[in-house]
Design brief:
The strands form three sheets. The protein has a five-stranded mixed beta sheet with strand order 2-9-5-4-3, with helices on one face. Strands 1-7-8-6 form a four-stranded antiparallel beta sheet. The protein has a two-stranded antiparallel ribbon with strand order 10-11. A hairpin with a 4-residue loop joins strand 7 and strand 8. The protein is elongated and about 55 Å long. The N terminus is likely disordered. The longest helix is centred in the last third of the chain and has 20 residues. The protein contains six helices and eleven strands. It is an alpha+beta fold and 299 residues long.
C-alpha cells in the first residue's frame, strides 16, 4: 500500500474538484453505512487498484483489516469515517464519481467471506465481511481515496468547523468572516474554515440569504451574516432530509439517488426565472468555479 499523504490524500484546502459529494450526500452515505455495517467484522479485502489505498501499515489491506470490527460509521467534512475496534479508522474521500455500496446478504454461521462475484463496474476496492456481505468502493474516474488511519494520526487537524455542530455559532461564524477580503463564495468553499460545504450548497445558501457570491466575506453586515448563517444550516439540513443531491453520479450506500436536485433554487438553473423575484438566474465563474445566482435579489 502507498505510504504517506503525497498526491493521493491531500489536505482539505486542496479539495476543489467540481461536483464532489458534499456534506449532505456524505452524511447520507455515512448514516446508511452505519445501519448496514456497524458491528461487522472484516474478513479480508481485494484491492484492484493499488493507488486508491493509502496507509502506513505495510501489509496488504485485507491482511491489515482482517479480524477488525466496525464500531460506527460517521462523517468529517466530506469524508466517510469508519471507526474500528482497534482504534484505527478507515477514511474514504469519494471525490467526483466514487461510490460506497453495500452488497450481499449476511450468511448465518459463515466463518469466512464468500468469493467476490457480481462486482460493481469500476470496483477498485472490495471489503469483505465475515458474514458474507461486502462493501464495494467503486470509482469510474479513480480520483477517490481510501486511507487506513492509525490512532495517533491527526488526519483531520486542518479541517474547519462542522456547520451542523454546536461549535458553528453565529459568533464563531462572524469571527471567521472578520477581515476576510475573499469573495464570500470562495470563503464558503474553504474547508479550513467550514468543513463540508461545496459548490452546490454554497450557491444555494447564498441565494437563500440574498447575498451576491462575489461580495467580500468581511464586508457583510450583521444582518447579512445572520441570514447566511441560518441559510447554511437550513439548506444542509433540508438536503440531508432528502438524502442529498444527485446531479451527476451520486448514489447512497443502497445505490439510490438523492432527491434534493428537485428543490434547487439556483444551482444548474441558468436562464430560468428566479423563484423569488422573477429575474433570470445567471451562471458566472468565481475562482474558477461555476457559480449560479440571481442578479435581481442577491446583492
Amino acid at each position: 500500500m502507498t505510504r504517506g499523504w503525497g498526491a493521493t490524500f491531500r489536505p482539505p484546502s486542496e479539495f476543489y474538484t467540481p461536483d464532489v459529494p458534499e456534506l449532505p450526500e456524505v452524511e447520507t452515505i455515512a448514516r446508511g453505512l452505519h445501519r448496514a455495517i456497524s458491528g461487522k467484522t472484516f474478513g479480508g479485502a481485494e484491492v484492484r487498484l493499488a493507488r486508491v489505498v493509502v496507509a502506513k501499515d505495510p501489509r496488504p489491506l485485507g491482511e491489515a483489516l482482517a479480524g477488525d470490527r466496525v464500531t460506527q460509521v460517521g462523517r468529517r467534512g466530506k469524508f466517510v469515517v469508519m471507526s474500528l475496534a482497534s482504534g484505527r479508522s478507515l477514511v474514504v474521500h469519494l471525490r467526483m464519481t466514487g461510490r460506497l455500496i453495500v452488497q450481499g446478504r449476511p450468511q448465518t454461521g459463515s466463518a469466512c467471506p464468500e468469493p467476490v462475484e457480481g462486482l460493481l463496474p469500476y470496483a477498485n476496492v472490495v471489503l469483505a465481511f465475515t458474514d458474507g456481505s461486502r462493501l464495494t468502493f467503486a470509482d469510474a474516474r479513480t480520483f477517490g481515496r481510501m486511507r487506513l488511519v492509525e490512532p495517533e494520526e491527526a488526519w483531520a487537524a486542518d479541517f474547519g468547523l462542522e456547520p451542523l455542530s454546536h461549535d458553528f455559532s453565529f459568533e464563531r461564524f462572524s469571527e471567521l468572516l472578520a477581515g476576510r477580503t475573499t469573495p464570500i463564495k470562495v470563503f464558503l468553499l474553504d474547508q479550513r474554515r467550514i468543513a463540508g460545504i461545496g459548490n452546490i450548497y454554497a450557491c444555494e445558501a447564498l441565494w437563500e440569504a440574498r447575498i451576491r457570491p462575489t461580495r467580500p466575506a468581511g464586508k457583510l453586515s450583521k444582518q447579512a451574516r445572520q441570514r447566511l448563517h441560518q441559510s447554511i444550516t437550513d439548506v444542509l439540513r433540508r438536503a440531508i432530509e432528502m438524502r442529498g443531491t444527485s446531479v451527476d453520479d451520486y448514489v447512497d450506500a443502497d445505490g439510490l439517488r438523492g432527491g434534493y436536485q428537485n428543490k434547487l433554487s439556483v444551482y444548474g438553473r441558468d436562464g430560468e426565472d428566479c423563484a423569488r423575484c422573477g429575474r433570470k438566474i445567471v451562471r458566472t465563474v468565481v475562482a474558477q468555479r461555476g457559480t449560479w445566482s440571481c442578479t435581481g435579489c442577491q446583492r
